[in-house]
Input
Amino acid sequence: MKIAVVGTGYVGLVAGAGFSEFGHDVTCVDIDPTRIASLKRGEMPIHEPGLPELVHRNAKLGRLQFTTSIADAVPGAQLCVIAVGTPSAADGSAELNYVLDAAKQIGAALTGYAVIVTKSTVPVGTADKVRAAIAASTKQPFSVASNPEFLKEGDAVNDFLKPARVIIGTDDDRATGVLRDAYAGVMRTGERIQVMDIRSAELTKYAANAMLATRISFMNELARLAEQVGADIEKVRVGIGSDPRIGNKFLFAGCGFGGSCFPKDLRALLHTAREADVPLNVVDAVERANERQKHVLGERVVAHFGGKLSGKRIAIWGLAFKPETDDIRESPALTLIEQLRAAGASLVGYDPAAAANIRAQLGDAIALADEPYAATDQADALVLITEWHELRHPDLAKLGARMRGKVLFDGRNVWSPADARKAGFAYYGIGRPASQAQ
Ligand SMILES: NC(=O)c1ccc[n+]([C@@H]2O[C@H](COP(=O)([O-])OP(=O)(O)OC[C@H]3O[C@@H](n4cnc5c(N)ncnc54)[C@H](O)[C@@H]3O)[C@@H](O)[C@H]2O)c1
Output
């Protein structure tokens, strides 16, 4: 099948490469010429494990191509996938300009029947707007469908090739057939494909993200309570996570969730709810709890130093919003950097993949080191924000020799408070009793 994927970011590039891996003939389009030029050279514009191999193999086989022109990619395609961004508008709603522009351009390039499917996360009712935008620019027959994406950055290739489920929202059998063919590579039996009406599919994506975010904010609030009452949230997590009705995923207390999806999708869902005049009190609280949580660690650092950070050098490990990605959109690290700088600290950061994005966004607001321990030289404290594997088991003797102060702030509860104490460090986690050096 010939497929055009419009938008070649975290979702579009993975989906395009994934569809080509299933044997389809895929053209990925992006309006960013630098991105397309680098992909044509075989260079990845994003960090995503397993993606370079997938792209290189399929490009070499001639099944995966890149262009800046929708007019080149769409003619002859049976499936056109919209995978452009839907950032937050000022009022919290999802900005649909990119989606509707793409729809219009796809419509203008159609040469025969095609299914146009929205993979971008879009509010309920967007399919109607997409249909209208296409209809205004073509006389060709077409179907519109929704196919929300559930991949997670850092494991996106696996998630796309072996998804827990593929949701197809459509009211049209012909479109269902095309989408089933497109995903035939996912599972021979096809039992992971769920077909539903378009509005339910659109809402399912927001419901999934809101549910996951709810678990995180719930644990973060409980972590704050645990600290006050002398309990350890890590023990509580294991205690409740072993209940099969609850499950052990997404129960980690930390320094708040960020990324390109949860925060903006919660805002968009709340906006939809306001417009429908249906209060979503739980989701509203989840968002507020997260905003609060993103400040907790920074406040703790400032309090530890008695409110004064001028002359203090703070090392930060992990800047991406989560491990295994270079994505820093709404990363809790950005909140921490702002807080510590406002308090007068000088900052040195380390991240295995996100340094270039931090440099592009923050300039010299934070110095960046090439390896983790270099960031800690003469540091008065070390803060962990993103639990990359390489940062989970620090060499405490090495840290002790390089750092000026002996304080660890563990924003992900991955370090051992007992080991830290033994090595002479004061340790602060999230929802765990703070411990002073022995
Ligand atoms: N990133 C994730 O983990 C994830 C997961 C599931 C769903 N989503 C959703 O998928 C969508 C895309 O997210 P992303 O993270 O891939 O975004 P992104 O910002 O990484 O990529 C979007 C790309 O679309 C391009 N673009 C914009 N307008 C275009 C046009 N008219 N023609 C061609 N290209 C155009 C941009 O240049 C950019 O490269 C969003 O709605 C997001 O909410 C993202």
